[in-house]
Amino acid sequence: MERYYQKEIETADYEQILAWQNERLVKQVRHVWDNVPYYRAKMEEKGLTPEDIRSVDDLHKLPFLSKDDLRDAYPYGLLAKPLKDCVRIQSTSGTTGRRVVAFYTQHDIDLWEDCCARAIVAAGGTEEDVCHVCYGYGLFTGGPGLNGGSHKVGCLTLPMSSGNTERQLQFMIDLEATILCCTPSYAAYLAESIHERGLRDQIKLKAGIFGAEAWSEEMRRDIQDKLGIKAYDIYGLTETSGPGVSFECSEQTGMHINEDHFIAEIIDPDTGEVLPEGSKGELVFTAITKEAFPLLRYRTRDICVLSRKKCSCGRTHIKMSKPMGRSDDMLIIKGVNVFPSQIETVLMERGYPANYQIVVDRINNSDTLDVMVEMPPESATNNAETIAAMEKKLVSSLKAMLGIYAQVHLVEPKSITRSEGKAVRVIDKRKI
Ligand code: DLL
């Protein structure tokens, strides 16, 4: 029998969902107008006052908010509560300007953890379970979000964070973990390590909750087969609290968006026009219950499709497909958000020319990042040892900037093909 964390909410009929959304949207617009001068100015620019927004039908009138707004308003410009009422920040990796810093009141954290708890229960979690969380803890939202959700469900929570595979496997076996939460690539890596060490019989996992990056149905099958589990997708972004904006149920055909907290729209990324249900376009969220950082019509840049088709799990909230790509140039490598401009900044700062190429691949279910960069002409005659030392320096600068390892290849001057049009800076070979 299907179990829910908050049954009445998760299975509410559409009229009820709409009633919540209408009421909360009106309240949220008023809250933002009263407390966020930045947003008020944006509304005024469009000739809007809170009275113009009476229901979800009026949502389209509101201006969009984008990552650029977050940059302009960094760090406190979008804050809607006094700092004394905020208890936490979470953040993405990245340089200033690209980095997102989100604020939470205790109430925000509570609702966020409810969303994650819904995802855990949808994956079969109960208080009998041992939930092994190896998303990163710290500024990244993955660890704290699933950790909080796991507490709410009453699971025994293993706050493992990422890395140290031997220790992960030891705890997984000794404490008989039943639910695994991590990025799909790390799940695939753990599955492979378990397979190689012949530990499959000692693993008690039954479910996995994997997200933060794109993963294919093939990858799902592979992880499910290797670990003998059911693998569930989970989606979210730092701007909207973190994981748990949407999550998969037993049907595994898309993720239910927690519509009592988020209103979802699909827009044409070029024109901003709102598209009808079933169209492919950019996902836009309005957070209607967040107090400290309540973004209205936030452009996620994720491309997907929404569907309100009846779901066999009994949940009524609208479903989104797996994200099919992005409408900007952000790459997600090993779950970390990477902008090509960050790599370019490092190269320029270190005196390299702007002739480089970034190659991303997925080998044995793990993302790889290679950066080919032309040597400055004066270095072309350097011996192999000096070149290796130069590469090593670049690797550590890139690691400091991106937070992940990039293999650097210094190549001969003028050896990277010049383009006649736009330079092809990024080659993404992953088939997702
Ligand atoms: O990745 C939050 C998260 C943590 C989600 C743990 C799920 C699990 P950010 O680092 O801000 O937040 O990255 C957000 O990651 O706009 C998507 O492009 C991508 N993304 C997140 N979940 C999925 C997913 C976290 N299930 C960005 N499938 C988003 C594909 C995903 N892409």
Key terms for this structure?
alpha/beta; four-stranded mixed sheet
Q: Beta fraction of the residues?
A: 15-25%
- Give unreliable regions as ranges: none
Number of helices: 11
Shape: globular
* Average pLDDT, all residues: 94
Assembly status: single chain
Please summarize the sheet with the most strands.
12 strands, mixed
Secondary structure: helix percent: 25-40%
Distinct ligands, ions and cofactors found in the model: 5'-O-[hydroxy(phenylacetyl)phosphoryl]adenosine
Task: Tell me what you see in this structure.
The protein has 432 residues and is α/β, with parallel strands linked by helices. The protein is 31% helix and 24% strand. The chain has helices at residues 7-10, 14-35, 37-45, 67-73, 106-122, 142-153, 165-174, 184-196, 217-227, 340-349, 384-402, and strands spanning 86-91, 101-105, 130-133, 156-159, 179-182, 207-211, 230-237, 242-248, 255-257, 262-267, 280-287, 298-307, 319-320, 325-326, 331-333, 336-338, 356-363, 366-374, 407-411, 426-428. Helix 2 (14-35) crosses helix 3. The relative contact order is 0.11. The model has no long low-confidence stretch (mean pLDDT 94). The chain binds 5'-O-[hydroxy(phenylacetyl)phosphoryl]adenosine (DLL).
Ordered list of secondary-structure elements with their pairings:
Layout: H1 7-10, H2 14-35, H3 37-45, H4 67-73, E1 86-91, E2 101-105, H5 106-122, E3 130-133, H6 142-153, E4 156-159, H7 165-174, E5 179-182, H8 184-196, E6 207-211, H9 217-227, E7 230-237, E8 242-248, E9 255-257, E10 262-267, E11 280-287, E12 298-307, E13 319-320, E14 325-326, E15 331-333, E16 336-338, H10 340-349, E17 356-363, E18 366-374, H11 384-402, E19 407-411, E20 426-428
Parallel strand pairs: 3-4, 3-5, 5-6, 6-7, 17-20, 18-19
Antiparallel strand pairs: 1-2, 7-8, 8-9, 9-13, 10-11, 11-12, 12-13, 12-14, 15-16, 17-18
Helix pairs in contact: 2-3, 5-6, 8-9, 10-11
